UniProtKB/TrEMBL annotation:
Subcellular locations according to the entry: Cytoplasm
UniProt keyword list: Cytoplasm, Elongation factor, GTP-binding, Nucleotide-binding, Protein biosynthesis
Entry's Gene Ontology molecular function annotations: GTP binding; GTPase activity; RNA binding; translation elongation factor activity
GO-annotated biological processes: selenocysteine incorporation
One Pfam family recorded for the sequence: WHD_2nd_SelB
Organism the protein comes from: Salinibacillus kushneri
A GO CC annotation given for this chain: cytosol
Coiled coil: none
Stated name of the protein: Selenocysteine-specific elongation factor
Stored InterPro entries: Beta-barrel_SelB, EF-Tu_GTPase, EFTu-like_2, Elong_fac_SelB-wing-hlx_typ-2, P-loop_NTPase, SelB_WHD4, Small_GTP-bd, T_Tr_GTP-bd_dom
Domain Tr-type G, residue spans: 3-176
Job of this protein: Translation factor necessary for the incorporation of selenocysteine into proteins. It probably replaces EF-Tu for the insertion of selenocysteine directed by the UGA codon. SelB binds GTP and GDP.
Length: 634
């Protein structure tokens, strides 16, 4: 489980010990607000890191409110989790919010659970057995019938180690989130910090975000923002990835423009802002009243809570029973979702959870009532061929046509038609025989841009990043990378110097804190003319850090400020050109070593390296032990 990232939800009825159990596991009290302390209930989401023995997994616990008034916070908290711990107090058993939380978890397709029977110190063995039997009986009718049951007393610590073992076992069976998909993080908290500015928190659903990277806040805001600082559980990190809880210090967007329910993305073109969604809806079987055509509802998805109405196309009313319905939800405000996202519907009034399901199509239209629309929705549910191609390419990145045919079971003729249509619309690209989503190329560019930007900031003296180093962890085929590199160079996004790659706008420069001392070295090189000291002498004299020595030497040579005379000596470029001119004026077409020595008045220590440097620069060439001018300076 090395370097795996998971988020665990702590759910259950109010006062069934969620916060106390979280503290027993993490030693952190997640009730932070004054009102939470006074009322002894959780109102907002609480977060804490969980360290598990014997694993390097990065685990976060989200403690969600148990009171029915705070269902929105509860749904926002559990929407991005990988595993849930459902707490049931031994002295009360299953209560209304326990049942509602379980129903919501099932609707969000969260089936990985551990049942924690808490407060076992408050009941005797006989009553504990009765409560356990009641819990098991209720679980048989839910998605959690196979979930392990543990017994804990959070105050004494009894059962906590057993719970930790069950958590490790469950997470080993939990698939990791996709860190290579386009970045998406629903925002469930917004606040400001003195001296810091605007901060947002959320669970990263997909992809990753690096410090300094730019992104957009959706819906509505076209303004670009920047991740000034990223923290995971109060620790500064360079990058946060899918499955982690992250706090992001934002620059470029004020707190007034941010709200719970916003979504952070790097590629706004990949995610849809919509107020009409086509859905597969699963109603609960125990709702209190029929659901009628255009019933007002509240839709919960990610951290969103948006009012809207249900629109049916094959009925005008649904009686309380469990069934799947293909229908539409029309919203009063736009949201940001993707195909496959889960949602929960609650009746606006009287308040109750109606059901939930998954979004088949984020870009719904106003269809006509009747069987034709239901057939269309059925096709959407099953997925159009184009959608299936795009989904596969988004998951596997770069595939050749035979692989696409094999994985999708399409004929060559059908696949050719689909690929042509997707290329014409700009949704996919073809490079060197490989196909990929356009967003994959954009993600690759953003990754390269971010890495080069960071590298230039850390190593301003260097001409760029070594190409093998830049691409060493990239899974993109080499042929594709070379083609894209050439294309981005033509588009003046990148430039290449020998084996070094840099952003087109970048030019090497001396670090600001060492610039004055480095300029002193350049001046000393000029003052010492031909008979320069070893470069190491000047570097130590000016106190330049040793780790910058080689970079500074390379910088001087690459910027043509100096030439390499020997392994240890360099000569100022202006000095060399002046001395070459002086020698040219005082010698004929052919000249001897002695003539050069007389002009320059130097020992062989400098004479031979100077003449060899002139040869390499094609001013001269050897001729029977002498030198011949082949490129006299003007």
């Amino acid at each position: 489980m090395n370097k795996r990232n998971y988020t665990i939800g702590m759910a259950g009825h109010i006062d069934h010990g969620k916060t106390t159990l979280t503290k027993a596991l993490t030693q952190i009290d997640t009730d932070r607000l004054k009102e939470e302390k006074e009322r002894n209930i959780s109102i907002e989401l609480g977060f804490a890191p969980l360290k598990l023995k014997g694993t390097d997994a990065n685990v976060s616990i989200v403690d969600v409110p148990g009171h029915e008034k705070f269902i929105r916070q509860m749904i926002a908290g559990v929407a991005g989790i990988d595993l849930v711990i459902i707490t049931i107090a031994a002295d009360e058993g299953i209560m209304p919010q326990t049942k509602e939380h379980m129903a919501i978890l099932s609707l969000l397709n969260i089936n990985q659970a551990i049942i924690a029977i808490t407060k076992i110190d408050k009941v005797d063995h006989e009553l504990l057995q009765l409560v356990t039997d009641d819990v098991k009986e209720h679980l048989t009718e839910t998605n959690f019938s196979q979930s392990p049951i543990v017994f804990v007393d959070s105050l004494s610590g009894e059962g906590i180690s057993n719970l930790e073992e069950k958590i490790v076992e469950s997470l080993q069976e939990t698939p990791l989130r996709n860190t290579h998909s386009p970045f998406r993080m629903p925002v469930d908290q917004v606040f400001t910090m003195k001296g810091i500015g605007s901060v947002v928190r959320g669970t990263i659903y997909e992809g990753s975000l690096r410090r300094g990277e730019r992104f957009f806040v959706l819906p509505g805001l076209a303004k670009e923002a920047k991740a000034r600082q990223i923290q995971v559980h109060n620790q500064d990190v360079e990058e946060a990835v899918a499955g982690q809880r992250a706090a992001i210090n934002i620059s470029g967007v004020s707190k007034e423009d941010l709200d719970r329910g916003n979504v952070l993305v790097k590629n706004p073109g990949y995610f849809d802002e919509t107020d009409i969604i086509d859905v597969s809806l699963q109603l609960l079987g125990d709702i209190n009243h029929p659901v009628k055509q255009r019933t007002p509802i509240k839709l919960h998805t990610g951290a969103n809570e948006v009012y809207g109405k249900i629109v049916f196309f094959d009925r005008n009313e649904v009686q309380p029973k469990k069934e799947e319905i293909l229908c539409q939800v029309r919203l009063q405000e736009p949201i940001v979702v993707n195909r496959g996202d889960r949602f929960v519907l609650r009746r606006a009034t009287p308040v109750e959870t109606l059901g939930g399901g998954w979004i088949m199509n984020p870009n719904g239209e106003k269809y006509k009532f009747g069987s034709h629309t239901i057939q269309r929705l059925q096709q959407l549910k099953e997925g159009s061929p184009g959608t299936l191609v795009r989904q596969l390419l988004q998951e596997e990145k770069w595939l050749k046509q035979p692989e696409l045919m094999r994985k999708l079971s399409f004929s060559k003729t059908k696949l050719d038609e689909i690929l042509h249509e997707l290329k014409e619309s700009g949704r996919i690209v073809q490079v060197e025989g490989y196909f990929a989503s356009s967003m994959t190329v954009e993600e690759l560019w953003n990754d390269i841009f971010g890495r080069l930007e960071d590298y230039h900031h850390s190593y301003p003296l260097k001409s760029g990043m070594n190409k093998p180093e830049l691409f060493q962890f990239n899974q993109t085929p080499n042929k594709v990378l070379e083609w894209l590199l050439d294309q981005w160079t033509k588009e003046k996004r990148l430039k290449q110097y020998k084996q070094y790659i840099s952003l087109y706008s970048f030019s090497p420069s001396m670090p600001s804190q060492w610039k004055r001392r480095m300029e002193n070295i350049i001046n000393h090189l000029y003052e010492d003319q031909i008979q320069v000291q070893e470069l190491e002498f000047y570097l130590k004299e000016e106190g330049i850090p040793e780790e910058l020595h080689e970079d500074f030497k390379t910088f001087l040579i690459n910027q043509q400020l100096a030439y390499l005379l020997t392994d240890k000596h360099i000569i100022h470029a202006n000095v060399l050109h002046a001395e070459v001119k002086r020698l040219s004026k005082q010698t004929e077409e052919y000249f001897t070593l002695k003539e050069a020595k007389d002009v320059w008045n130097v020992s062989r220590k400098y004479l031979i390296p100077l003449l060899e440097l002139m040869d390499s620069l094609q001013f001269t060439e050897r001729a029977d032990g002498n030198r011949k001018w082949i490129g006299r300076p003007n």
